[in-house]
């Protein structure tokens, strides 16, 4: 797939940013950031399921886009492969969670590991299952992440790798690209 693509960009948004801003906002930001890294401006953008404002080019939200548009399907594959690789890498740091097997999805094994070990810094504390085992479920979702890394055992120093992934396919981009918060692209925070 990537051999046939003119170019592509992958943007990774860390779990802490997902907790702070919300998953949907971060998904939109990842798509905007991926498009912004392309050296050739696309003439038209297809997105999977929901529209994305602020792209600077016309676009169309395609329901079940990964099933009906090859470019959306290709972007979906890049995002999933990137996430799976990140989860396998996280397994090296946090083997007790079995990230190499369930890739962070809520499975009985993941739930058992969360209950046994508590969350690590790469978990999304805004998610109910993580908040529940951390004892932070009574807080609003965006205030559940501990302010200081190390507050919860076995939290270790976070790496910017396990959040959400956005992908753009066009000419002149590179893979992977990790980008932090971009207030200008998001209209201010």
TrEMBL record:
Which enzyme class, named as a word? hydrolase
Q: Which PANTHER family match?
A: RIBONUCLEASE H2 SUBUNIT A, RIBONUCLEASE HII
Q: What is this protein called?
A: Ribonuclease
Does the UniProt entry include the keyword Cytoplasm? yes
Q: Where is the RNase H type-2 domain?
A: 1-142
Query: Lineage in the entry?
Result: Bacteria, Bacillati, Actinomycetota, Actinomycetes, Micromonosporales
Q: Which GO terms describe its biological process?
A: DNA replication, removal of RNA primer; mismatch repair
List the GO cellular component terms.
cytoplasm; ribonuclease H2 complex
Pfam families hit by this protein: RNase_HII
InterPro entries per UniProt: RNase_HII (IPR022898), RNase_HII/HIII (IPR001352), RNase_HII/HIII_dom (IPR024567), RNaseH-like_sf (IPR012337), RNaseH_sf (IPR036397)
Q: Where does the UniProt entry say this protein principally localizes?
A: cytoplasm
- Do the record's keywords include Transport? no
**Would you say which domain of life the source belongs to?**
Bacteria
Under the heading Gene3D superfamilies, the entry gives: Ribonuclease H-like superfamily/Ribonuclease H
Q: Which cofactor does it need?
A: Mg(2+); Mn(2+)
Named from the GO MF annotations, one term is: metal ion binding
Q: Where are the transmembrane segments?
A: none
Q: Where in the cell is it found?
A: Cytoplasm
Task: From the UniProt record, list the reaction(s) this protein catalyses.
Answer: Endonucleolytic cleavage to 5'-phosphomonoester
Keywords of this protein's UniProt record, alphabetized? Cytoplasm, Endonuclease, Hydrolase, Manganese, Metal-binding, Nuclease
Its EC number is 3.1.26.4
